[in-house]
Amino acid sequence: MLVLPHVVLAFLVSLTHLVSADVNDAIYRLIDALPGQVQTEGIPPPYNTRFDAANGYVPAAMVYVFSAEDIITALEICYEEDAPVALRSNGGHSYIGQSTVNGGIIINFTELKGFEVVPEGGRYIVKLGSGLKLLEVYSRLARHDPPLGFAGGSGSSVGIAGLTSGGGHGLSSAMYGMSSDRIVAAEVVVYNREEDKFELVTATGYNEHSDLLFAVRGGMGGNYGAL
Question: Concatenated DSSP letters for 51-114?
Fold first, then answer.
């Protein structure tokens, strides 16, 4: 009688390491489509250890993307193969587990490091790649002439996309608001249901995707598209 619960527990734990045939098919296709960008062993755990392997979250693969085209390719394959997907902008800080997926595929945005400062009408617009860490953003803004800054958080290793799409509360929020308040546009990979395809769109407050910009400004990353 005492042995049975232990046997059942061992069986349940082993299930967390199984990968479905659909996910395996997706991994094989991803390796072919994005050579050198798919990791199946030694996958880095998320910063938030509540969602690491010791707690039953064992991703089957991680895909490193370098462009919007890579993101679209990865999402198309996972969608067609019905493989579970999670998006990770950098280290995996999500406190609700959005940065990982058990038995599924993580799309990692770490290599998207674009940074550009554009003067516009007496102010500066900064274009940021989703894979930048908060410390990288602060450092580059500080080195700009003139030095710049923005209302961000205090976690240096947090990814900028996760921070802003989650609201972005920080030490200066009482005076300057949330990080998401400063977003004026976003490039987002979304699923176009009418045309049955993934596509890149630019959402601003004044175009046909204004509702999407409203959604991603604090609506949590991964719910509406890939930033």
Answer: GSGGGT---SEEEE--SHHHHHHHHHHHHHTT--EEEESSS---TTSTT--TTSEEEE-TT---
